[in-house]
Amino acid sequence: MSKTLKINKNPEQGVIDFLSFLLENKKIKGVFSLKKIDKEGSVAYSLITSQKDLEDAVPFYPLMPVNAGKLLSRFTLNGPPADLVAAVVKPCELRGFVELIKREQGSLDNLLIISSTCNGVYPTKLGLDKTVEKNLSKYWTAAKKGEILEEVRPVCKSCEEFVPYNADITVDIVGNNDLDKQCLMCLNSKKAEELSKGMKGDFSDKQIDSKKIDKIREKRGAEKKKLFNEIEKKMNGIEGLIDIFGKCISCHGCSKVCPICYCVLCEFESSDSDYKPSNYEAELKIKPGVRVPQGTLYYHLGRLSHIGISCVACGACDDVCPVDIPVSMIFKKVGESVQKMFDYIPGKNLEEKIPLITFEKEEFSEYED
Amino acid sequence: MKKDKEFMPKILAFLCNWCSYAGADLAGTSRLKYPPSILPIRVMCSSRVDPIFVIRAYLGGVDGVLIAGCHPGDCHYQEGNYYTRRRFAMLKKVFEETGLDKDRLLLSWVSASEGQKYAKITTDFTNKIKNLGENSSKDKIFL
Amino acid sequence: MSNLKGAIVSAKSGTEKTIIDILRKAMDKGVFDAVMVPMKVPAGDAFAYVLVKDKNLLTDASVLPPTMFVQGAKAVSSITRLGKGKMKIAAVMRPCEARATIEIAKLGQVDLENMIIISIDCPGVLPSSDFLKNPEKKIKQFYEAANKMDDTIMRPVCQICDKSSMISGDIHIGTLGAKKDTFFMISNTKKGEKIAESLGINLKDNLDNWQNKVKTISEEKHKKRKKAHKELKAKIGGINNLVETFSHCINCHNCMRVCPVCICRLCYFDSDKVKHPSDDYLDRAKSKGSIRFLPDTTLFHIGRMMHMSVSCVSCGACEDACSMSIPVAQIFSMISDETQGLFNYVSGRSLEEPIPIVTYKEEELHQVEDENE
Fold first, then answer.
1. What's the complex ipTM?
2. Which end of chain C is more exposed for a tag (fewer CB within 10 A), N or C?
């Protein structure tokens, strides 16, 4: 049974105290966390090395300007840090990071991963004015009760994977009635237990209530069913896809912010996807006109087939889309159906190979002729 | 130019060099009949086929796509066709979820000696596609 | 602009319809084999460029749509970057899109041989996010505003654009200063002249009414532009203001990717050059107590300015694509005026004018050298 450490402050303050303790005692060299970066209160991920700057950290702020898994991959791309660095990330960001590690795009070495059960994030645009700040207490009240907030990302409302996998420390947030004055940190690994020695707080064997988690997961599942039904109605064949993606401007922002899309030169931006005049001339022989630049649906369907297997449904794609296409719900739905075929949950198990690079000798005979 | 004759589908066939392409050749040299719907593309192994080839072909208007390789266990490169099978299953699921015609995709194992099988599956597939009709992507402008 | 020749064209059925008719006639006569023109998408919530071969499709075309979802130069480049085809294609675009096309032709991204660039006096274009709130209503609003020459609902950079009638392509449609139910068809190149001839359009009319109206409006806009730039510079100038302006930037690089003149397949700022080892980042963090991660947001923007501002056409595509509502276009447009002004250069004004940073004069710019030289 892994131990738990209880600090009698709210989760943000508790974690900051813990990280400050680790920094002060030189047990870690730095902290990766959301932080208020200016007087206006703009929030961005930061690499923090001083205890003073740590005071401005907001580790569980309900915004995800960038998927932190992608950032951790960039941080460890050229090798892990020489000394321990703590990182506070959300469950889907951690899963994204694990999927990237499977693709040799990063490493968990010398990282102390702190995560929490998650009640979702607001669309990034709401962080531009004071909307998120103004709604913070409403957010935390809903988190305390395990209720779904109307204003968070659609993929958050319907997220059933809100309990982190592979975290050294999990903080109990969603459905925790004592949230205002209790930071309950589950020490999942030996590393976490070792580092916590000497920290002021109550150590016990208390665990996160799994029944409570199951109830919340049910609610999320019901919301997922609803949102899936809505998007399914729109995805009715080629006409449906043309309608959904008609306003796409091929900016490829969705791919650039996606944690799983890591290719430096994307297939759909490479010379493979260039259209020569002969391509146009051939197409115009069979149809009266072609939309240019070409390849809008090709890009989206192609991206679905390439990364759908690992989509962690974080919703970063939705927020970056300049024309408000519901990319995240489409990828979540199609991604989940592909993942279910292989009983695969992306980012859950670091040792589990990505289904498309492994096989069974006998399987899927229903797909063979 | 669309003719007013009976619809002869265009079916792109990815054939692996060692088994199914040879099998197709055998069908030819044995003078076995099969419809002129097939546009063969030789690949060294069926696992060379990236799903995006199929998507591009489908959006380009081909009426059907066939991927044929060695029987599982007989792949010239040991394991290629196992990956093909998984990738194909995944692609079919993507088509299903997005409402595209998943029945226009076919995976078949044809060995170098199976000229008859090649003739049969291509004939059956062509008839199936004929029943499905032309791929409506052909006249879509805003793809 | 001295080789401009024009004709007054009668447009009783409306300017757009008449232009479409002319395009149709040109296709009939084989003057063009295809036309690249904006069309409304089936869902009705956007306009996209379509390469049209069947002239019957032109009935649904819109020569001056309310939005510019994709910069026209990017659309032209996707057709002809890998060389000219057999088809003669006429592309109908806004002046900034035409200028961008000419500019990237100098960068090897467009083969102009079989392309005919047609532009039209531009009243501005709506920000995409506004349009998407209510497409049907916004289409109406756009045309009403355009008719009244009211640019308050257009992109911020459109509101201070003094080049909305600048001609850089082969043919230009001049609506300003034209009498009721007419417009000017103006040729700028020999290619343009030949086309007008083959359509039976006699380029012998006086363009003074158009040129005078354009001059008046452009001078007015220029004053407004200078004022706006002065205010913007005060607002974002200096390292503190710059960092604050870009504080919300999430490094998605949408601005760079939708920019017509940002043509690098692999941008420097996406390359290995900006991917450092973890301990480098930690050292940087140690020196200040903390750093944003990923750092170098401001570097990306200033760097992009360095790389492309001499080619910026102030179209505003970047600001539309920014997911965090940063006024990128206004900032880049202001800087570009200065950098282009340094060389008396206007991006895309003429195909013959080399881009300033790939050419030089042996005696010039002494003002930036050390005075002891």
1. 0.94
2. C
